[in-house]
Amino acid sequence: MAPEYALHGIFSAKSDVYSYGVLVLEIIAGRRNNFAQYPGTNGEDLLTTVWRHWNRGSVSGLLDGCSADGLQPTEMLRCIHVGLLCVQEDAHLRPGMAAVVVMLNSRSITLPVPTPPAYVVSGRAGALGMSTTREAQAPAGAVRGPYVNDASVSDLEPR
């Protein structure tokens, strides 16, 4: 779930881009985006693990043994790069899906450097690594929710 939706109820096409990026990274790493103990992850969520490997230049440590069969390392690296672009904290920096398709199909396009991904802890109010003091700006066409009904009054009376 995109962090801007989970924390502020803002939904846009960039929320779907975020979900796509998580899915790509889950497939490449061969694990889900949760805090389960996977070997070599120290209990980190998937996005933290991928970002750590990306910064160290050790993304080969991410690859699931099965998923790397038959694929070139440059293709896997490009998929990880695009996945990281899709899960950037700032929704405005995430590419649109049309751009994602072009990035994955064209080797001649230079990809921008990704910024750190957003980290949302499910089941807890708040986020790790996300600025909660900054009020999220709604992208064009965004839907805000949930809504609070201030018009109705419900008085509960015991039996």
Automatic annotation (TrEMBL):
Pfam families hit by this protein: PK_Tyr_Ser-Thr
Ranges where the record places region Disordered: 140-159
Protein name as annotated: Serine-threonine/tyrosine-protein kinase catalytic domain-containing protein
Highest taxon of the lineage: Eukaryota
One of the record's GO molecular function terms: protein kinase activity
Residues covered by the Serine-threonine/tyrosine-protein kinase catalytic domain: 1-48
Position of the signal peptide: none
Coiled coil: none
Species the sequence originates in: Aegilops tauschii subsp. strangulata
InterPro entries in alphabetical order: Kinase-like_dom_sf (IPR011009), Ser-Thr/Tyr_kinase_cat_dom (IPR001245)
